Amino acid sequence: MAIEIFNRTEEKYLLTRRQAVRLLEAAGNRLTPDPYCRDGKTYLVENIYFDTADDALISRAIEKNIFRQKLRLRSYGIPAPETTVFLEIKKKYEGIGNKRRTGMSLKMAETYLEDGKLPDPDTPGINALVLEEIDYLRNNRDLVPKTMITYERQAWFSADDPGLRLTFDRNILAREDELHLGAGPGGRPLLERGKVLFELKAEVSVPMWLAKAMAQMKIWPVTFSKYAQEYITREPGVLRDCV
After folding, report:
1. What is the CATH number of the domain that holds 41?
2. Roughly what angle, to the nearest 10 degrees, separates helices 17-27 and 208-216?
3. Going along 77-137, which residue ranges are E strands?
4. Which 3-state string (H, E, C) describes 131-176?
5. Considering only CA atoms, which of 171, 131, 132, 148 is closest in space to residue 72?
6. Cys bridge to 169: 5, 7, 8, 151, which one at CB 3.0-4.6 A?
7. pLDDT tens string 70-114
8. Is the Cβ–Cβ distance between 238 and 231 less than 8 Å?
9. Is 243 a member of any domain?
């Protein structure tokens, strides 16, 4: 069964493509690709983010509130109606990220999001408690689809520590139309040409080999959120401090 609840720290870094290659070379055989990263190749991730009509969730995040949350629908690759997709709540409190998600078919997810009909909680793969939490947030805040963000990802786990995850995202694109999974990538770029967003997600600590390699390459953390970046490029005048 896919992991449904994550608690970890997350640091983000903007790399050149050459730096991304060098970092993976430094890892040697210490990393294993995640199930979607076959033979170490990139795969497409599609996300639909939900918010209030006046963008209250992302505005709260940009204002650096100590508690922030997001709701999104995610697929790995371009899904068919029976493909498993994930409804996810992402929360952050005082720097610690928490992600809770439940899987269901794309057809079930679209039916729920269009008419509010909850899937049968006994359906295989559905976490009823997480779905109840998502349903409460969605209805309590009147959340609607706001933006589509897609990117190509490479993702790796530490061979020694499965709680350590490294992801490399490139060709990050955003748009406010065609808000349905399966529409494929398209929209305006959120990164400079040739840049890669590297995310380091750890439940405990960063291993010495990785910290040393990053220091040697002068890789330092940045403040960056894909959804926040999409919002500030959509709404001129918003402070450009993407949390």
Report:
1. 3.20.100.30
2. 150
3. 84-93, 96-105
4. HHHHHHHHHHCCCEEEEEEEEEEEEEEECCCCCCEEEEEEEEEEEC
5. 148
6. 151
7. 999 999 999 999 999 999 998 876 666 788 899 999 999 999 999
8. yes
9. no
pLDDT value at 118 more than 70: yes
Contact status, residue 153 vs residue 169, Cβ threshold 8 Å: yes
What sign does the CA torsion over 100, 106, 110, 111 have? negative
Q: How far apart are CA 149 and CA 72, in angstroms?
A: 10
Rounded alpha-carbon distances, angstroms, from residue 11 to 57, 151, 199, 204, 205:
21, 18, 6, 13, 12
Indicate the number of domains in the chain.
Answer: 1
| Whole-angstrom distance, CA of residue 128 vs CA of residue 231 | 31
3-state secondary structure (DSSP) of residue 32: strand
**pLDDT-above-70 percentage for the chain:** 90
Range of the domain at 118: 5-234
Backbone angles phi, psi at 129, to 5 degrees: -70, -40
CA distance 51 to 64: 17
Establish if 241 belongs to a structural domain.
no
Give the largest Cα separation in the chain, rounded. 53
In single-letter form, the type of residue at position 230 comes to E
Pairing verdict, β 188-189 and 165-175? antiparallel
Concatenated DSSP letters of 208-241? HHHHHHHHHTT---B---HHHHHHHHHSTTS---
